[in-house]
Amino acid sequence: AVARKYGFKDASNEWKREGCSEDFEQIDSEGYLVHIWLKYCKFGFQRISDIESRRIREGLRSREDAMKMVIEADHKLDTKALNDFVDTLGYTTDEFWEIVKKWNKYL
Q: DSSP label at 76?
């Protein structure tokens, strides 16, 4: 809300990102969202957990509401971000998942 007040544009008009709770991050580098998501494979949480825990501490969200968001979306990898990532690096999605399996603890 504060960012919009000062004219900041988000990515909400372009696509609804899976596994994200904000549309203000990485609006010009879709594939970078895969980097953020990879934390989930290794540690069991990703950016949504980070954002929602901050919102709880700041009094912007109840713990119950934040937990719903985390349970619903923290594990999701955005398809558009994945496609951009593998296209940029020259991998197929199958090759990507084979690499991820080596590090996966939670999928």
A: -
Alpha-carbon span 83 to 28, nearest angstrom: 15
Nearest in space to 66 (alpha carbons), one of 57, 75, 79, 77: 57
Per-residue pLDDT of the chain (107 residues; tens, 9 = 90+): 677 788 876 666 665 666 665 665 655 667 778 888 888 888 888 888 998 999 999 999 999 999 999 999 888 888 888 999 999 999 999 999 999 988 776 65
Three-state DSSP class for 2? Answer: helix
CA 62, 63, 69, 72 dihedral sign is negative
From CA 32, how far away is CA 41, in angstroms rounded? 15
Residue 73 structure tokens: 């979306």
All residues at 6 or more sequence positions from 24 whose CB lies less than 8 Å from its CB, including other chains: 3, 8, 10, 11
